[in-house]
Design a protein that fits this description.
This protein has one helix at residues 2-23; strands at 37-40, 44-61, 68-87, 92-110, 118-137, 140-159, 162-182, 187-207, 212-214, 220-239, 247-251. With 254 residues, it is mainly β. It has one domain (37-251): Porin (Beta Barrel). Strand 5 (118-137) and strand 6 form a beta hairpin.
Length: 254
């Protein structure tokens, strides 16, 4: 009887074991979360260089004698630029930029009323400080810009044997549009068009058989109106800021 009881208990334990195991909760497998999603951030600062082409138009008007004519010139342009951007959530980017470009656009015109008088100009440089507003699609940024501009030109008024040469620095305004693409986390390239308007200013020139002078009331005052167009391409090196030129987490997907 004792042996029979032990055998019965053992058999009962064998029968009950699967049922008890079935009652225990099975462990739930939880997959690890995927890595967070990253996008390029335009927040930070940059510095770089550019090359391109410049087209300048000058309109000369002689208020005393009524002479009016225009002159066009074009040349290369090359310079540097630098600035900083800040990107908001959603892709909008605002920033500020300063640039300076050298050029050598030259034109000569012979006066209609005074055939012995030659008027020449050479555009030497153009600079600006502008604000920028754009929208970023990850590594591509489209933007518009506008602000204050400066230029430096040389003028020459010449009679035979008598020459007046002087430099002229003028202030105006500029607007532009462009696009920029980030190749990696520290280098971008851009293409840009800028329009410059320097309004109209008066330069007084006195030329005679003995001397030629510039400045002050004169016999030959000229109102000079000027506009410029610039197309340029360039490279920027990115630095500064949290994640500028580097990835920044946007969201973690689970």
């Amino acid at each position: 009887m004792k042996k029979l009881s032990l055998a019965t208990l053992g058999l009962a334990a064998l029968v009950a074991a699967p049922a008890m195991a079935a009652d225990l909760a099975r462990p739930v497998y939880k997959a690890p979360p995927p890595p967070p999603v990253y996008v390029f951030s335009w927040t930070g600062c940059y510095f770089g260089g550019n090359v391109g082409g410049l087209w300048v138009n000058k309109e000369f008007t002689g208020p005393v004698f009524g002479e009016s004519f225009s002159a066009d010139a074009s040349s290369w342009v090359g310079g540097v630029q630098g600035g900083c951007n800040y990107q908001f959530a959603g892709g909008w980017v605002v920033g500020i930029q300063a640039d300076y470009d050298w050029t050598n656009a030259h034109a000569d015109r012979v006066s209609v009323l005074f055939p012995t008088l030659t008027e020449s100009f050479t555009a030497r440089s153009v600079a600006s400080v502008t604000g920028r507003v754009g929208y970023a699609w990850d590594r591509f940024l489209g933007y518009v810009k506008g602000g204050v501009a400066w230029e430096r030109d040389d003028f020459t008024f010449a009679f035979p044997g008598v020459i007046a040469s002087f430099g002229d620095t003028r202030t105006g305004w500029t607007v532009g549009i462009g696009g920029e693409y980030a190749f990696n986390n520290w280098l971008t390239a851009f293409v840009e068009y800028d329009y410059y308007n320097f309004g109209s200013t008066r330069d007084n020139v006195v030329c005679g058989p003995v001397a030629c002078f510039v400045g002050g009331p004169g016999l030959l005052p000229f109102d000079i109106k000027e506009t410029k167009s610039v197309v340029k391409v360039g490279l920027n090196v990115l630095f500064g800021g949290l994640g500028y030129g580097g990835p920044g987490p946007v969201a973690a997907r689970y």
